[in-house]
Ribosome-recycling factor (Halovulum marinum), 188 residues
Amino acid sequence: MSDDNTDEVDLDALEKRMDGALAALRHEFASLRTGRASASMLDPVTVEAYGTPTPLNQVATINVPESRMVTVNVWDKSLVNVVDKAIRNSGLGINPVMDGTTLRLPIPELNEERRRELAKLAGQYAEQARIAVRNVRRDGMDQLKKIKGEIGEDEAKLYEDEIQQLTDAEIKKIDAALEAKQEEIMQV
């Protein structure tokens, strides 16, 4: 094996990309509402502030004072109604209660049907992550095909095995994250 990197597959880069798919999945999971209050459930909410769509956390402070309550302290009084409307239209199923510049968001219990929908959505997110990991695997295998003539058959087989092991390990992590999230969603 020579010292220039044209005749080897960068396994670290492949692993980083696969880890990126898992990180993206965890971020998606954080936005899924379970029966518990969490500040991250408001991450997808954007507010039309000063003529631009702005993430909610850039116009307000979000706190979780208790397990079934989120408070949103809006910094600019003129944006309170806009924030209220954005949260109501976000699809989270939350109706804010206004108290000056503070919005109180009581988190309702999830009914069985909504829990099943969320668990199914979590499954879809996990499948997208698995597809992303498989795409990285395919890229790695393509890199390997390009250099197959320059490296020996045994070395090519070793790379193939390592790429497959990375893929299997990452998919196992995705499945574990999915199982944990679905368990959390179904918990009453």
Observations:
- The longest strand covers residues 60-66.
- The radius of gyration is 22 Å.
- Residues 77 and 128 are 40 Å apart (CA to CA).
- The chain has two domains: 5-30+111-186, 36-106.
